[in-house]
Design a protein that fits this description.
By secondary structure, the protein is α+β, with helices and mostly antiparallel strands. It has a single domain (4-120), classed as Sufe protein. Chain: A (Alpha-Beta Complex). 44% of the residues lie in helices and 20% in strands. It is built from 5 helices and 3 strands, in the order αβββαααα. The chain has helices spanning 4-11, 59-72, 77-81, 85-91, 101-120, and strands spanning 24-29, 36-44, 47-56. A 3-stranded antiparallel β-sheet has the order 1-2-3. Strand 1 (24-29) and strand 2 (36-44) form a beta hairpin. Helix 1 (4-11) crosses helix 2, helix 2 (59-72) packs across helix 5 (101-120) and helix 4 (85-91) packs across helix 5 (101-120). The longest helix has 20 residues, at 101-120. The protein starts with a helix and ends with a helix.
Amino acid sequence: MYSEKVMELFRKPHNLGRMKNPDGVGKVGNPICGDVLYLYIKVKDNKIKDVKFETFGCAAAIATSSMITDLAKGKTLEEAKKITRENVAKEVGGLPPIKIHCSNLAADALHEAIKNYLKRKGKK
């Protein structure tokens, strides 16, 4: 059902955990399946220097959360804003149609964390 990459990231997720004093926080959830994702970012010189996540959900939700942190780390805010749901799904080797919403959570949480950071800094 799941790709080898999804299972690898589910078993050993990257950047898992809460971040102390994040510069931006994105919280998204899917009321249909109950998945909830918190994504935390640290920004320096307009780049995402660190990113962590906490996910309450299925294997696909955890794997895509892990993948979004790998994709976003080191990117400028503008580059990170361009990471799409499709990018996430592709990078984990695809997802079953019933689980594609999980990649939506990951990309949406990143975009929300960036919005939150910009709002805190008084930028749009």
